[in-house]
């Protein structure tokens, strides 16, 4: 079984596209919580409100870290998707963690970000442009079959 | 001796400010190559030109990784500076590497980036706003003395 | 599956409350032996009496360590509960072990211990006040759902 | 050279007694910041005040962790002193970290704490009652000479 | 599930006694090949004869190491039995490997060997005198129940 | 269960012979993609053509590394087969990786390569001449039974 | 200081060329024994003759491993040179070891070996064609200066 | 510099012979305390008498472990000498620790112990018969020079 962690951008359906395209393969997918509001507020919703936004964010980020750490540590392959918008520093941070832990890293991003992502890409075993390419890689890795 | 790696933004004098403010302390500072042009072109300048910009960048990023990996792996403290501009994904990537390797992480950034950096900050032992604060932390860590 | 080790105070029903509140989740809970008398006497009961209480205690603590080491090493999340009474140094010791092994640490304690526990809390991803909060964290980590 | 980290109680002169009694030996001693006020306030003194005492403490504990982590990680021997008063959970936490990192642990404590410390003691290679005994152990370890 | 590796003496039925006394417990036992002749000759029987006894032995010891390494590395608990006869250096070697890998070590030996085994015993969490004691420890570790 | 990775030469049926001869044993075999053309072209077939053969090869080698890394890291035993032809540097590279990761290494090669492979052989627990010998080793390791 | 291990081909002066071109840099170079006869015979010359060439080679390879293991484990950068002739499996093996240990790998080889070395190259941070290029990389890594 | 730990038999002058024969080489030698009486009694001499010989021995063995652990962990090469007499289980235990930590192991023993030591020898890179042979290996490893 291949364990794949899908990190990064949460506003498009790229995760679902990969998972669907991998139908029939022996893969266990994991991902962060992708409900943006829940992810932002989980800390204070459970552990009590914070008047200071900095600690509001900190509480949430630490609770989310329980899930993301486990997801990355148990993965064989970490796919990190950089979207068109936002800073996405958490995605690059996850890529750094994955790299330092020796995970196989696949970056999913568009060419206009190539230069800005060159250090992240240089730590990756593949730079893909579409979810379909990621799925084709996973299929090849497991079955040895290339797309027709 | 404390080994401190100064990662991130390369267009202002924050590294020099920290180093100067730590005068007299037993610290060995390290950093990436901060000559932007050399850093971008080192791969092709040494190993031969690439017509494709993607591989041009890759060659350079890999050569730079020889230096940055060693710098982070040997550091006790990794300071990562996020500036006002650019994507700075390499800075967030370095923070992820430092975190996964168990380094003490200090993030240097302005409050308007707090929300975007919340996952990175949550992995840090300090979030500083000025180079002077970073230097005061390093001085306290080594001497136990607080700023007057 | 999430593996959760429940360390610390053994005189109240906090473990049962967490486990019950996590009903339906894919969690494997583990814990030390919570039978106080058995835990104190296991060494001499099996391996022979010791006239010196120091070695009586040592024998028991070493036998218990076979269980607690495995429990902590195999856990994804270590919850450490500090109660109102006793020194509870073994709880703080377990927290230190968990932290050094990179486990996600949740501390369960009351506010009057905040200052005394500040170093332990600083190594934790969450400081909870009730077993219900711990369960809500675990539920969110696994399902992404916040309490209503 | 032997690197020895002296963790725990900060209100008596036990560190100085050990260091003095080790005069002439090739030992590098390290310790946390033992100025109680500075240790409590270092976070807010450098990084800005916090109205909430919980985060005041957290900021300080995280800055102190930069020093204590390095001290323990670089040590060959970690001596943890439990005094007569206070909860001292940070001392037990340090002992847990030291144990998990495979450091040689020496506990310095009085017999009335033997039962409460039995799990910590069980992870130690020596339980000493006086600073002089700790120094004699260090002298023996380095020179093979026993006290006359 | 507890994984227990039973190392050492191969001429008595101590393994069977432990396994039988652990009936009903969730334990996976492993052990080296205990057929003395097969163990001695496996190298040359499969890979070809050696005129020099030194290499005859080496070939066999290396093939056996494939099994023993895996057994010890995957174990939670390593029980090492020292019998009344022979040098049994392989048993002490296995104990050293287990100790360096952080396994919970139980030594099974008679009191007349206490002094000769003091360094090995000092790395163990229990020194048992009978297979029944080992089984009682394993039962207590898994169930918290002491022998009646 | 024993996990065995079969690395190296891909033009003969040695893998099938070993697997067949291990029929009935609790072994999970893994291997690289052995379809030569797919293995050579997987990078460009999925991620886009490269005019430069060097990067064509690089892209493929990196995609294949996702599979081979996982295969070697999860293996208990790595068998590396050196055939009669070709440089087979990837086989020797895999042997180096396996050795550094502490895997049990079995080399399968003919005597005329003994001198050239002496450093690789010296890191192995067995040097076999035929697939049947490898299978006999695996059978002995799991069952303790020698070939009749 | 940068520690560089120079592995591989021993019949040309590539090591001397790199070392000379790095004059003035803070680099400690290490390498295997490059006296071919001594390297082949060290085992039997010291530990006694072996009638069987296989064990003759084994004895020597194991003695040489004492040096090469230390050299690679302590290196920051491992340069592996593949020459025009011979199997050079020990060079590829060293590259595998270096890669698994997370060392920065530089491969020095000619283009006609590109395809055969593609898996080794894919684990490297640079593929150089001349000793001068290797030296330029090392100079850039340490000083940030590119060749004029 | 090569760090060499000399473990095992303490009743002959083998350590001195090796050290003397390595005169002029850049080697740092370390060893356990070789004063038999001090080694046996160090625990009780410093930490107080024990009426039970088992705990008398335990206390001493644990204090000695502070030195031996450090010695082995910091060594590049561990030489383990088995003499003609005694059980010497501590020597075999040290060999196991050294092997599990990936140290280069040299065993020094006479042929009549070959069969009993076959598992230990199989983990070693050299089996030497005399201190002179050990010194010749160390000299070759450092200088590449064979004995005349």
UniProtKB/TrEMBL annotation, chains A, B, C, D, E, F, G, H:
Protein's name in the database: YtoQ family protein
Pfam family, one: Nuc_deoxyri_tr3
Database matches in NCBIfam families: YtoQ_fam
């Amino acid at each position: 079984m291949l364990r794949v962690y899908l990190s990064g951008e949460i506003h498009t359906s790229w995760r679902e596209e990969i998972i669907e395209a991998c139908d029939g393969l022996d893969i266990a997918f994991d991902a962060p919580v992708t409900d943006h509001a829940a992810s932002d507020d989980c800390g204070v919703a459970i552990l009590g409100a914070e008047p200071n936004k900095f600690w509001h964010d900190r509480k949430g980020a630490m609770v989310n870290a329980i899930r993301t750490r486990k997801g990355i540590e148990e993965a064989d392959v970490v796919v990190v998707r950089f979207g068109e918008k936002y800073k996405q520093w958490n995605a690059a941070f996850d890529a750094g963690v994955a790299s330092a832990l020796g995970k196989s890293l696949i970056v999913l991003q568009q060419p206009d970000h190539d230069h800005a992502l060159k250090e992240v890409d240089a730590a990756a075993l593949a730079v893909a442009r579409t979810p379909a390419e990621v799925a084709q890689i996973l299929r090849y890795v497991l079955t040895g079959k290339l797309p027709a």
